[in-house]
Amino acid sequence: MVNFLNALTSVPLGELEVGHHFYWQLGNLKLHGQVFLTSWFVIGLLVVASLAATKNIQKIPSGIQNLMEYALEFIRDLTKNQIGEKEYRPWVPFIGTLFLFIFISNWSGALIPWKLIKLPSGELAAPTNDINTTVALALLTSLAYFYAGFRKRGLGYFKKYIEPTPVLLPIAILEDFTKPLSLSFRLFGNILADELVVGVLVLLVPLFVPLPVMALGLFTSAIQALVFATLAAAYIHEAMEGHGGEEHEEAH
């Protein structure tokens, strides 16, 4: 029985690999090359779309210009609703970058057949399929709302860490990091689970059964990008105002 289980666990599930990575060696540092490749693809796609939309601006927008203007208006409204009319403008680029990068990354995992591109080890997938990417986004969010709070309230921003008693200082610091980190784990878990489910279904039933799951994956991927960007803006507002953060998270 033991030999049978060992043999079973040593057999790969079709072409589906989990936990294998394509590394780049940079001195003593190992980099996930597959994540850089797909991230650069997403960034390149966004840059090309931006250049195409602004190359020949028309008074009555159409095509890619119309799409990008709609995206900008959506991001601007999202940021304004979370941060407020007076403070939102400087944060539109940051929130917009978060939303668009996560949105395109998530959809690339669902729409682009990355697994057809062979690597020496591992396989290509959406950038948000890797925990390193989502944690990096969470740390950027943490730095953003620390900066926002300090810039708006000065040294008074740090009073919240010792109120109502300095005993709560470690808990208050931990809370500021765990909120965006929880977002990163949720984003990573949802994208990884979606790609694994679709991969297994394609292996088992390769024709029409995976299509509804893929459609649902596109919807949930968009929602994940929206939730991450919305809560990032809410945390920034909380840092500047010093209250009102928890109800934003509960609402989503």
TrEMBL record:
<dbReference type="InterPro" id="IPR023011">
    <property type="entry name" value="ATP_synth_F0_asu_AS"/>
</dbReference>
<dbReference type="Pfam" id="PF00119">
    <property type="entry name" value="ATP-synt_A"/>
</dbReference>
<keyword id="KW-0406">Ion transport</keyword>
<keyword id="KW-0813">Transport</keyword>
<feature type="transmembrane region" description="Helical">
    <location>
        <begin position="91"/>
        <end position="111"/>
    </location>
</feature>
<feature type="transmembrane region" description="Helical">
    <location>
        <begin position="215"/>
        <end position="236"/>
    </location>
</feature>
<dbReference type="GO" id="GO:0045259">
    <property type="term" value="C:proton-transporting ATP synthase complex"/>
</dbReference>
<dbReference type="InterPro" id="IPR000568">
    <property type="entry name" value="ATP_synth_F0_asu"/>
</dbReference>
<keyword id="KW-0066">ATP synthesis</keyword>
<keyword id="KW-0375">Hydrogen ion transport</keyword>
<comment type="similarity">
    <text>Belongs to the ATPase A chain family.</text>
</comment>
<dbReference type="GO" id="GO:0031676">
    <property type="term" value="C:plasma membrane-derived thylakoid membrane"/>
</dbReference>
<keyword id="KW-0138">CF(0)</keyword>
<dbReference type="GO" id="GO:0046933">
    <property type="term" value="F:proton-transporting ATP synthase activity, rotational mechanism"/>
</dbReference>
<feature type="transmembrane region" description="Helical">
    <location>
        <begin position="131"/>
        <end position="150"/>
    </location>
</feature>
<dbReference type="InterPro" id="IPR045082">
    <property type="entry name" value="ATP_syn_F0_a_bact/chloroplast"/>
</dbReference>
<keyword id="KW-0472">Membrane</keyword>
<protein>
    <recommendedName>
        <fullName>ATP synthase subunit a</fullName>
    </recommendedName>
</protein>
<comment type="function">
    <text>Key component of the proton channel; it plays a direct role in the translocation of protons across the membrane.</text>
</comment>
<keyword id="KW-1133">Transmembrane helix</keyword>
<feature type="transmembrane region" description="Helical">
    <location>
        <begin position="31"/>
        <end position="53"/>
    </location>
</feature>
<keyword id="KW-0812">Transmembrane</keyword>
<dbReference type="InterPro" id="IPR035908">
    <property type="entry name" value="F0_ATP_A_sf"/>
</dbReference>
<feature type="transmembrane region" description="Helical">
    <location>
        <begin position="187"/>
        <end position="209"/>
    </location>
</feature>
<keyword id="KW-0793">Thylakoid</keyword>
